[in-house]
Amino acid sequence: MAPIGGHRAEEEQAMAGAGSYDAIVIGGGHNGLVAAAYLGKAGLRTLVLERRGIVGGSCVTEEVWPGFHVSTTSYVLSMFHGRLMEELELHRFGFELIPTDNLFVPFEDGRYMILWDDEAKTCAEIAKFSKRDAERYPEYNRFLAQAAGFVRELAWKTPPASLSPGAARDMLELGWKFRKMGGAAFRFIDLMTESVVDFLDRWFESDQLKATLAYYGVIGNFKGPMTPGSAYVLLHHLMGEHEGAGGWGFIRGGMGGLTQALARCAQAAGATILTDAEVERVTIRDGRAVGVALANGDTYTARAILSNADPKTTYLRLIGRENLDGDVVAEIESYKTFSTAFKINFALDHLPTYSTFDREKIGLPFPTYIHIGPTVEYLERAYDDAKYGRPSTRPFLSPVVPTLTDPSLAPEGKHILNVFGGHAPYELAGTTWDEERETFADTVVETLAEFAPDLRDCIIDRQILMPPDLERIYALPQGHIFHGELTLDQLFFLRPVPGYGDYRTPIRGMYLCGSGTHPGGGVYGLPGHNAAREAIRDLKGRGLRRRG
Predict the structure, then answer these.
(1) End-to-end CA gap in the chain
(2) CA spacing 20 to 30 A to 43: which of 96, 184, 446, 539?
(3) What is the enclosing helix (H) or strand (E) of 349?
(4) φ and ψ at residue 324, rounded to 5 degrees
């Protein structure tokens, strides 16, 4: 099936000429497409406006080099909920998940650890470093499963925007469920507030295991493993449920396979999708959003507008400061989005060889998913560099080769290597990314080559995406993959700003549906689902609700 985007069909333009819709979704990323699908299934005439020439936002597959179809930004599926897959029947629209069941972590002394979906196999790996930790790991797993279950339930709920009777009742219900966690509730509080190192120190003694698990606490955020609050990010990465179970996986056709399926689902539900359609402003009359104006001069009207753009762009540019109270402007300006995440994609002539990977002993032809972050100190020093505006001299890395599971992504015999990592600050001290880009990419290659010595001989070409590139191309604010930090002051009813955590905004009929809302970022889908639910309630239940 051809990808959705790249042109505006004449029939789509004719339909759009009517100009009036029940709902307009600004941005065709994964959350915007989820929202459009649910709006369409509710019988609402829906228009999706996507700035780029292809839908998907930062969850796309693009032909970067001839024959190489690259997941340019997001690269594995880890958080998209199985219930969304089932309700939207994504398999009908070409979606295919390829599960993976292992994480390979090499260490500097030549040893390695593998975390498997099979807990017994993982415990055997841990026992090579600490028998005590191997005995404790099942209890740790049970606690995280319990904590993740509580947070997953919370993720489907709309945060309260005020202390209304209904909101108070919901909060009391959640409080009762939290109380039922018993002694684990205190550990949960630790998980929400502590550094990931402090949290893991309570469980384990092995530096290798702690480094392996602490890695999850620094992915995508401007934090080190010793930074308070980094423990929650570990939990955030466990929120996905594939086919009713947790885990990681690749998508047939790359990450764009998900968003293309979502787009087809939305279209099947009656939604219209226009690409190359950049929204310049939201049209506001008497405190209510009534439509949008595009950069090319086109205008459309709707009863509800849902923005998949990040909160700062939505509030300060699309709505406009002049339409907001000073307190709201101050809150949104203080919303933290500074990013240090980067992505480098490589075209490979052949696979590199990891010096510590013994395929016969391990029983795999090649490591499926890899973390390069061998010690807690390594992870912290990578953060220390970034704190002072310097690129990490030894960055932490997540290299994956999707062509192992889907060879169709590259020419026969060739491969794609996706490398995500940190830290590469959005702004550099005393220099710019135009000057440092190639040097830092070389540092990434040198770092990875410490574990895969023949990597340089494998590389055909590379695509370098630093935070300013992620912002310019994919509209990620300051390159932040979550649309904002996952800190306690930016979660639940405080995300993105106090009083407007329920997906609504100070402008009637205007909603946020992107990663800058509850329950947060990643290829999640729930912000889009939850925002659509609230818009549908307002449109079909009570009309567009007023606040106060």
Answers:
(1) 48
(2) 96
(3) none
(4) -125, 150
pLDDT digits (tens, 9 = 90+) for 342-371: 999 999 999 999 999 999 999 899 998 899
Q: Is the peptide bond before 423 cis (omega within 30 degrees of 0)?
A: yes
- Please state which of the ranges 145-149, 315-319, 395-399, 471-475 shows the lowest mean pLDDT: 145-149
- 476, HSE (Cβ side, Cα atoms, 13 Å): 31
CA diameter of the chain: 70
**Residue 287 located in a structural domain:** yes
Using CB atoms within 10 Å of the CB of residue 110, give its burial: 0 to 12 exposed, 13 to 18 middle, 19+ buried.
exposed
Mean residue pLDDT across the chain: 90
DSSP states along 9-70:
-HHHHHHHTT-EEEEEEE--BHHHHHHHHHHHHTT--EEEE-SSSBSBTTS-EEEEETTEEE
- Identify how many contiguous H helices and E strands the chain contains and give both numbers: 19, 17
- Residue 393: inside a domain: no
How far apart, in whole angstroms, are the C-alpha atoms of residue 403 and residue 445? 19
User: How many distinct structural domains can be found in the chain?
Assistant: 1
What is the spatial distance between Cα 35 and Cα 102, in angstroms, rounded to a whole number?
A: 32
All residues at 6 or more sequence positions from 172 whose CB lies less than 8 Å from its CB, including other chains? none
Domain contains 262: yes
List alpha helices for 156-273, DSSP H: 165-179, 184-193, 196-201, 207-214, 230-236, 256-268
**Do residues 5 and 63 touch, judged by C-beta distance below 8 A?**
no
Query: What is the DSSP secondary-structure string of 76-119?
Result: SB-S--HHHHHHTTGGGGT--EEEE-EEEEE-TTS-EEEEESSH
Which residue has 């398999």 as its token pair? 91
- CA separation for the pair 102, 82 (Å, rounded): 20
pLDDT of residue 460: 98
CATH number at residue 505: 3.50.50.60
**Identity at 180, one-letter amino acid code:** K
State how far the Cα of 273 lies from the Cα of 256, in Å rounded to an integer: 16
What is the domain range of residue 64?
10-96+252-335+496-542
Q: pTM, whole model, 2 decimals?
A: 0.92
Main-chain dihedrals φ then ψ at residue 363, nearest 5 degrees = 90, 20
Judged by phi (left if over 0) then psi (alpha if -120 to 50, else beta), residue 47 lies in: beta
The pair of three-digit structure tokens given for residue 459, joined into one six-digit string: 């590389």
Asked if 345 and 417 touch (Cβ cutoff 8 Å), the reply is: yes
Which two structure tokens, joined as six digits, stand for 376? 């807690």
pLDDT digits (tens, 9 = 90+) for 33-70: 999 999 999 999 999 999 999 999 999 999 999 999 99
